[in-house]
Design brief:
248 residues, alpha/beta, eight-stranded parallel beta barrel, 44% helix, globular, binds 2-phosphoglycolic acid
């Protein structure tokens, strides 16, 4: 049976004091959903989110981690710190981290390896800019992003990851990729994973689409052959909208 994971990416939104009530409300609204539900909240909201999600179907994730275990990295957060808080998922290599904070395919790879080593489930983001799409290099670029992100990652470990395809031009712009555009790239991701790791990892892998997912377009997107749910930004900040997407 096709597997679905819908993850919310709150980005730099919501206060710690708003978090518990929101997660509890969301948990009630998504109860019984077929899709697994994840909320990736700011570091400052993690404690409240983990506590509020206990005993519910909502899983909690962080939005980043550092690839070293500890040390002189002012302002950074390690995998052990997240694991110690019972955080289960972590977004890695979101395009905003690549764009504003200098993350590269190589740092993404280091973070994927560290997250897996510590037992966190990575949501690895890939995606092209509008310029790259217009150049006709989308598939080449995505293939290379996936290959570098998964360097020195075994098949067994790759199977624990989620890959999120997020075209940069569709993030926060209200401009969603068409179902066919989104599925074409998600299918290409499955092909590269098949080349690297074989059929069972490729067939079982959760590949999400992200970029202006809304309750009104979720069903069509998630109904495509190679899309197993979504990574949702703006619409994950309203419990009705997010629940509507989860229950597509
Ligand atoms: P959006 O963001 O849903 O607001 O477009 C998606 C994301 O950045 O993960």
């Amino acid at each position: 049976m096709k597997k679905y994971v819908v993850a919310g990416n709150w980005k730099m939104n919501k206060l710690p004091s708003e978090t518990a009530a929101f997660i509890k409300e969301l948990a009630l609204k998504v109860e019984g959903a077929v899709a697994e539900v994840v909320a990736c909240v700011p570091y400052t909201s993690l404690a409240a989110a983990v506590e509020a999600a206990k005993g519910t179907c909502v899983k909690i994730g962080a939005q980043n981690l550092h690839f070293e275990d500890s040390g002189a990295f002012t302002g950074e957060v390690s995998a052990d710190m997240l694991v110690d808080m019972d955080v289960e998922y972590v977004i890695i290599g979101h395009s905003e981290r690549r764009q504003y904070f200098g993350e590269t395919d190589v740092t993404v790879n280091k973070k994927v390896i560290k997250a897996i080593e510590k037992g966190l489930k990575p949501i690895v983001c890939v995606g092209e800019s509008l310029e790259e799409r217009e150049q006709g290099i989308t598939i080449d670029l995505i293939r290379s992003q996936v290959k570098i992100a998964f360097m020195n990652v075994s098949a067994e470990d790759a199977a624990k990851c989620i890959i999120a395809y997020e075209p940069i031009w569709a993030i926060g712009t209200g401009k969603t990729a068409t179902d066919e555009q989104a599925n074409e790239v998600c299918a290409a991701i499955r092909v590269v994973v098949r080349e690297l790791y074989g059929d069972s990892v490729a067939d079982g892998l959760v590949i999400q689409y992200g970029g202006s997912v809304k309750p009104s377009n979720a069903a069509a997107l998630f109904g495509m052959s190679d899309i197993n749910g979504g990574l949702v930004g703006g619409a994950s900040l309203k419990s009705d909208d997010f629940a509507g997407i989860v229950k597509f």
